[in-house]
Write a structure and sequence with these properties.
By secondary structure, the chain is an alpha+beta fold. The protein is built from four helices and 14 strands. The protein has helices at 30-40, 131-149, 187-201, 210-216, and strands at 13-15, 43-45, 50-54, 57-60, 65-67, 96-97, 103-104, 107-111, 117-118, 120-122, 125-126, 163-167, 173-177, 182-185. The strands form six sheets. Strands 3-4-5 form a three-stranded antiparallel beta sheet, with no helix packed on it. It has a three-stranded antiparallel beta sheet with strand order 12-13-14, covered by helices on one side. A two-stranded parallel sheet has the order 1-2. Strand 4 (57-60) and strand 5 form a beta hairpin. The longest helix has 19 residues, at 131-149. The two termini are 27 Å apart.
């Protein structure tokens, strides 16, 4: 791999408990991810279980150690343990169950949004712990809290699209749509969308203008980010 400020090459190994690195993102996205990792010189090793980080590197189930000076361990997500104080059944991620109005099931005086809430999105799918669900959930929860206090009708959460935007470094970005993650765009086109999301869309309006802030907090139905499709990305994976 190319390095900044180093004369000798650096070995990068990406280990995954899944059979293939990136397979959790589905069959359509996997070829794009594998091609990017190969181009970047990243060694991909699937079907591994990490058990410890030692001074020598990463220890795997079975006794093998991958030598490493630096280990980055991605262990997944869990909700804040404060959710246990509500006395209701939590999901496997520690999240509170909520109705589509974001009212906590079993605790009707509480509304919940973001990474500590499991909200129904559409049949068979609940909210995921990411900004694309957390942001609209916050808007609808805030609206419904006020509506509940004033005796007004509550708005049901509605998020019609699901996308995945994975940054692949110098190889661009992978943009998929739908729960089956159909590839829509890759490369520089998708990278521009990723930068817009991370640098602009997830933040409140700058400048502190009251009307702009209130408009950004309105419970409007979320629409998909416009992305030009990549022609070569529309083919089925082999």
């Amino acid at each position: 791999m190319a390095q900044a400020g180093r004369s000798e090459p650096v070995r990068v190994v990406l280990a995954d408990h899944q059979p293939r690195v990136g397979s959790g993102l589905g069959v359509h996205a996997l070829p794009v991810i594998e091609a990017a990792l190969a181009e970047l010189g990243v060694e991909s090793r699937g079907g591994l279980e990490a058990v410890a980080v030692t001074p020598e590197g990463l220890e795997l189930r079975g006794g093998e150690t991958i030598p490493a000076a630096t280990v980055v361990w991605c262990a997944g997500l869990r909700a804040h343990p404060l959710t246990a104080a509500f006395g209701v059944d939590l999901d496997r991620l520690g999240r509170l169950p909520v109705e589509n109005t974001l009212r906590v099931i079993g605790v009707p005086e509480v509304f919940d949004a973001g990474d500590v809430a499991r909200a129904p999105i559409d049949p068979g799918h609940d909210s995921v712990m990411s900004c694309q669900h957390g942001r609209p959930m916050g808007r609808f929860a805030g609206h419904n809290v006020v509506a509940d206090l004033l005796g007004q009708p509550l708005l049901p959460l509605h998020i019609p699209t699901y996308v995945t935007v994975v940054d692949l470094g110098p190889c661009g970005t992978l943009y998929t749509e739908g729960w089956d993650r159909q590839v829509v765009a890759t490369g520089a086109t998708a990278k521009a969308t990723k930068r817009l999301i991370n640098g602009v869309r997830i933040y409140p309006p700058a400048g502190g203008d009251r009307s702009a802030l209130l408009a950004a907090a309105a419970p409007e139905r979320q629409t998909a980010q416009a992305v030009a499709p990549t022609p070569t990305a529309m083919t089925e994976p082999g």
